[in-house]
Amino acid sequence: MADTASLAATPIAAAPRETRDDRALHRRVFMGLAVALALAPLVLYPVFLMKVLCFGLFALAFNLLLGYGGLLSFGHAAYFGMASYVSANAAKHWGLTPELAILAGTVVAGLLGLAFGALAIRRQGIYFSMITLALAQMAFFFSLQAPFTGGEDGIQAVPRGALFGLVSLADDRVLYGLVAVVFFLGMLAIYRIIHSPFGQVLKAIRDNEPRAISLGYRVNRYKLAVFVLSASLAGLAGATKAIVFQLASLTDVHWTMSGEVVLMTLVGGMGTVFGPIIGALVIVTMETYLAPFGAWVTVIQGLVFVLCVLLFREGIVGLLARRLGRPL
User: Fold this and answer.
1) Beta carbons within 8 Å of 242's beta carbon, 6+ residues apart
2) % helix / strand / coil in the chain, to the nearest 5?
3) What was the pLDDT predicted at 290?
4) pLDDT in tens, 141-171
5) Angstrom distance (rounded) from CA 192 to CA 187
6) Residue 23 falls within a domain, yes or no?
7) How many Å apart are CA 257 and CA 248, to the nearest integer?
8) Pure H helices in 246-268
9) In total, how many domains does the chain have?
10) Per DSSP, what are the bridge partners of residue 248?
11) What is the mean pLDDT of the chain?
12) Entry's InterPro entries (predicted)?
């Protein structure tokens, strides 16, 4: 893993200041994404697309914390994985409809983020990162031992159910519609947070925390708030993934999942609005289409990460934004 101090400080301050034209550009990108989401199932396998969207939302949630809050967490798999367990149990054993199961997973992830965040934000830099990793490892151990998670077998055969009890989600294309809506609304929510007064204060804290304190902002409250928001959105992604793949397993709460979302964010572009989506697309595509290489996929991912850090630390979208001179 790269030097955490440099990751937490990198390209944010260098981001171009947004203008009215930039916001118009963002609206066009959003409309383009909406059209792409609508047409994508016509040319690509819906299950692959749903995997990309779930991990794209996960990476966007992580980027909200790291790219705009300046907080590098090594434990985001805890919220992603625990939400998937709760969502799977809610759908399979509690008999909840899929939207309520996803909501239950999201709420639990938010509460877990509140508990973990209240402890972690008391420290800064590498100490903050190590606390998040330690707490996530505790969540992994709990998931391994607790009866309701199914241990090493996980929770399998999770029913997709019917949306609002009316629309069956058994068909992949119908379920894709739900996942696409969840992803798009999650992305719009993150965009709104970034461009709200709350988001501006976050950027001020990220760029110069002592100055933000001197201006009277209660920094720890802002940090905790963005931590909980990021954990909740990561949980939304994990809960949705459990419904899509009808499975919740230890993989989702393992520390490697935390590393994977860091990789997605850095490859796509930390501190960019759309970068994590591209990063998730690249990593999921590699995992899917390079699967015949077995364990070598991890080596290839490592090489991509090294090349990204050495050649363009801003990530794919960050590099594109720098070339265009426009924030993306």
Assistant:
1) 83, 84, 85, 87, 88, 91, 101, 105, 155, 158, 248, 252
2) 75, 0, 20
3) 82
4) 999 998 888 888 899 999 998 998 888 898 9
5) 9
6) no
7) 13
8) 255-268
9) 1
10) 155
11) 88
12) ABC_transp_permease, LivM-like
| Residue in the structure block whose two tokens are 């985001």 | 76
Contact yes or no for 71/226 (Cβ under 8 A): yes
3-state secondary structure of 168: strand
Rounded Cα gap, residues 93 and 99, in angstroms: 15
Contact 24, 144 (CB under 8 A): no
Range of the domain at 49: 45-253
Distance, CA of 262 to CA of 57 (rounded, Å):
13
Angle at alpha carbon of residue 153, lines to 149 and 157, rounded to 5°: 80
Is 295 a member of any domain? no
Cβ neighbours of 93 (radius 10 Å)? 11
Q: What's the whole-model pTM score?
A: 0.90
CA distance 208 to 212: 6
From residue 82, alpha-carbon distances to 142, 252, 292, 299 in Å are: 10, 8, 30, 28
In a domain, 80, yes or no: yes
Summarize pLDDT for 176-207 with one digit per residue, the tens: 999 999 999 999 999 999 999 999 999 999 99
133 pLDDT exceeds 90? yes
Burial of 229 (0-12, 13-18, 19+ CB in 10 A): buried
Q: Residue type for 293, please? A: F
Residue 293 falls inside a structural domain? no
